[in-house]
Design goal:
By secondary structure, the protein is α+β, with helices and mostly antiparallel strands. The chain contains 11 helices and 13 strands.
Length: 337
């Protein structure tokens, strides 16, 4: 599954989302992870995310991905609503597995499942799970994608292309073997899925001055940086040598020929931190045992500049329809599922 292009969204979706409700603080805005709604003295933070680019762990992953977006605002997630669709009426074992995984993820995060819908559709070739996550925030201004300021440091946690590599290891194992990846490497890549939550680091950085946060999902790190830059009306200057790419990710990238900068990576958080908060933010992450890298700085200008081996590549256009995992699904539609 891929997104429509920004041009299509601007023509066919966004014109129909206008609202005059005075309690809507932040409605549907491209690039923002959440909606913000005023309820009495609190702010309701909400987000909806579908998962169809995975099969194994799809329920577990869907809950974590949706709750990650709530955390990027600085709010802890509290509740989830579910949509679970499987291809056939006979897929009871698949449904049971998905619901079991959803329950496991909810326990890990500490959220409550408060409702939803389950069903089947012959039009599906693989299951679809969509999760609406909700949380509340009080006595604090929520962190948004648009908050980056000139001079801020750009922090990236854990590494990039984590989720996409793990999905390839689970759902494309047969293809991986054919491409020369060993059983040990496949097992190592699958371990990346365990780090998919960014809730601990997002809440910690919200407490330590983060001006903008965005989890790295569809489109990868590059798309995430472009969205922060566009919404914040700034530029991003990045040193490619500082971008954390786990060796197992590089191995899969060579075999499957994908660009780690553009691979989906739930488990990776991008945050912009003012210079006066960088020490406390770094210390907070270190105390939690969360690996991170300071990859660059927010600058005057537009788009993203990535410096590598004496050359600078400039990126300006947002291509939310571009996704490496979706491309691989098209290349290998008959994988080992």
């Amino acid at each position: 599954m891929s997104k429509f292009s920004l041009d299509v969204l601007s023509r066919c979706v966004h014109p129909y989302l206008e609202s005059h409700d005075p309690d809507i603080i932040l409605g549907a805005v491209f690039g923002e992870d959440v909606a913000l709604t005023r309820i009495d003295d609190s702010i309701l933070v909400s987000h909806l995310d579908p998962i169809v680019g995975a099969v194994k762990n799809i329920g577990w992953l869907a809950v974590h991905v949706a709750c990650n977006d709530i955390a990027t605002s600085g709010a802890p997630p509290r509740w989830v609503l579910l949509l679970v669709l499987v291809p056939k009426e006979e897929d009871e074992l698949l449904l049971d597995e998905i619901m079991s995984d959803i329950s496991r993820a909810a326990r890990e995060i500490g959220v409550s499942i408060i409702g939803g819908h389950t069903g089947y559709s012959a039009n599906l070739s693989r299951p679809l799970v969509a999760v609406t996550a909700l949380g509340t925030i009080s006595n604090r201004i929520p962190v948004r994608t648009k908050g980056a300021r000139v001079g801020d440091h750009i922090l990236v946690t854990k590494g990039i292309a984590l989720e996409g590599t793990a999905i390839l290891a689970y759902d494309f194992a047969q293809v991986a073997w054919q491409l020369g990846i060993s059983e040990g490497e496949i097992m190592e890549a699958r371990q990346l899925m365990k780090g998919v939550s960014i809730i601990p680091e997002a809440l910690a950085l919200a407490e330590n001055g983060a001006t903008a946060m965005h989890d790295v999902t569809r489109g990868g790190l590059l798309e995430t940086l472009l969205e922060i830059a566009k919404l914040s009306e700034v530029g991003m200057q990045v040193n490619a040598g500082r971008i954390p790419i786990p060796s197992i990710v590089s191995r899969f990238a060579r075999a499957f020929q994908f660009d780690p900068l553009m691979m989906i990576s739930s488990g990776t958080l991008v945050a912009t931190i003012p210079p006066e908060h960088i020490e406390s933010a770094s210390q907070s992450l270190a105390e939690k045992g969360i690996h991170f890298a300071d990859i660059g700085q927010v600058i005057d200008g537009q788009g993203v500049q990535i410096a590598q081996e004496g050359q600078i590549r400039h990126y300006h256009e947002i291509h939310c329809e571009t996704d490496e995992l979706a491309r691989i699904w098209k290349l290998y539609p008959q994988n080992d599922q």
